[in-house]
Amino acid sequence: MASSSPVFRFAPSPNGRLHLGHAYSALANERLAARLGGDLLLRIEDIDRARCRPEFEQGIHDDLAWLGISFSPDARRQSEHFDDYRRALDRLDALGLVYPCFCSRQEVKDAVQRREAETGMPWPRDPDGAPLYLGMCRLLSEADVQRRIEAGELHVLRLAMDRALARTASEALTYRLFDGNGEEREVAVDPARWGDVVLARKDVPTSYHLSVVTDDALQGVSHVVRGEDLEAATDIHVLLQRLLGLATPRYHFHALLLDEGGQKLAKSRLSQSLADLRAQGMTPEAIRRQLGFT
Ligand code: GLU
Prior knowledge:
Rossmann fold; 2 domains; binds glutamic acid
């Protein structure tokens, strides 16, 4: 049920211990939720069964409790909701927007190199720097696809970006960006710059993009507060929301904590885990102060 009070969420992945960057993001959510009188949910983003570990998940709960951030009860664990992602994928498939791709990373790389050698021009990269998919598997015949799937060949499922954009051509692909001080503005997105994104991985029957969009909608999230490293990916999220008939939350992107050398948290004091800092006698109050949340 849609609730009238805002709903925020902090959504870490249990593939390592939380560090100060995570603390910053969780505290930014806490502060904005408090300011707008909203609820704060915790979501465990553990679709990657190979990298996520129970001790890291426990660590998330311990670290957040230690920091003194309270969440609404019952964190959602993505690994318990693969059916929801399957349904979203089926819906996109029924619209004719999904196709299987059997290419390995190496094949994709080689194809891009060949194309660049042929044309003498750089092939476009997505905002994360990866070359856009060249679309080789879109040329496979139905029979070929069937044969390879039946033979058990591993494949990802990709979004046919051109068809997805054609389908949403009459809609405004925008979201509201909020700053937490009452200012908002409309931002237009450009999903084409991501090309035919992967919606389900070879090893996992979903992807970050599909799960995050599905969960934000199912959990009634109205305000997403996350790092600016995910700002460009919001283009894909807005497109998926339109295709799936889901509401688009408001978004706020906070700056990332940088280490002393100006890098995203690396092997410096700043990237030490909260557990290590705690063991060294750091207090939650000191962390809040250091990160500007007092
Ligand atoms: N699970 C993602 C991460 O740990 C965050 C996802 C999001 O906030 O949309 O980076």
